[in-house]
Automatic annotation (TrEMBL):
It comes from the Bacteria. The chain crosses the membrane at residues 67-85, 105-125, 222-244. Keywords: Cell membrane, Membrane, Transmembrane, Transmembrane helix. InterPro entries: ABC/ECF_trnsptr_transmembrane, Cobalt_transport_CbiQ, ECF_CbiQ. It is found in: Cell membrane. This is Cobalt ECF transporter T component CbiQ. Coiled coil: none annotated.
Length: 249
């Protein structure tokens, strides 16, 4: 199980209805995208961090380890805005307004990524997928997603075991040995994926699979006070952003 999935299963908000957390996380993400980067995205990022580290109870180290991956993509996407290719100033030069555009993009995407992480850190995938059938998603699509979600962790565990065995047999002592180990790892993972799928199909047939996976879903009621709090938080961010932009900046 990935660290972010383990954190979601042990989250303080695990028993809350996924709709509440979806409204909060996606609401913050949409707010970060729609509001001006300064000060809107900064306020969204501050509010999201406060919720994550406070009521949601996410450990700062876990949050940083998960956030540094999307942050790397944000930085990678912002860097090209700094430069202009061609023109009278040379083959590569600093773009007019490039630092401002890069900073705005970095602020907006970073704040939006935190909003998505808020939902991921508090809601396990296994709590969301079964409820998608009630939302109108076809049951076969949800069944395939549930099966792939399960197989993904099994394959990751198999790959980790194979890599450990290859390292114990000095499979990475040279470049040639590393390439051979990588090829063997890919072949083994491919064969084991088919084996896992075959065993899963046999297991489902033995349990009387009739085209629909029946999963026990923990019952949870949607909290109206929580949704009112989310609406108040989003409204406060929007109003504060507009006020700062009009009277202070």
């Amino acid at each position: 199980m990935l660290p972010i999935d383990a954190a979601a299963h042990s989250s303080r908000w695990r028993r809350r209805h996924p709709l509440e957390k979806a409204v909060l996380g996606l609401g913050l993400t949409v707010t970060a995208v729609c509001l001006p980067p300064w000060p809107g995205a900064v306020l969204v990022a501050a509010a999201t961090l406060t919720v994550l580290l406070g009521p949601a109870g996410v450990a700062p180290r876990q949050l940083w380890r998960a956030f540094r991956v999307p942050l790397g993509f944000c930085v990678t996407g912002a860097v090209p805005l700094l430069f202009a290719v061609g023109g009278p100033q040379g083959a590569v030069s600093l773009a007019p307004g490039g630092p401002a555009h890069a900073g705005q993009l970095l602020l907006r995407t970073s704040a939006a990524s935190l909003g998505v992480l808020l939902f991921a850190f508090t809601t396990p995938v296994s709590d969301v997928l079964p409820r998608l059938v009630r939302a109108g998603v076809p049951a076969p699509v949800v069944d395939v997603a549930l099966v792939m979600y399960r197989i993904t962790f099994l394959l990751l565990d198999s790959v980790a075991r194979v890599r450990q065995a290859q390292a114990a047999r000095l499979g990475a002592t040279s470049r040639a040995a590393a390439w051979r180990s990588l090829a063997g790892l890919g072949a083994t993972a491919f064969v084991r994926a088919f084996d896992r799928a075959s065993r899963l199909q046999t297991g489902l047939a033995g349990r009387g699979y009739d085209g629909t996976l029946r999963v026990l879903v923990t019952r949870a009621a949607v909290s109206r006070p929580f949704l009112c709090g989310v609406a108040g938080l989003l409204a406060a961010i929007v109003l504060l952003t507009l006020a700062l932009e009009r009277y202070v900046l």
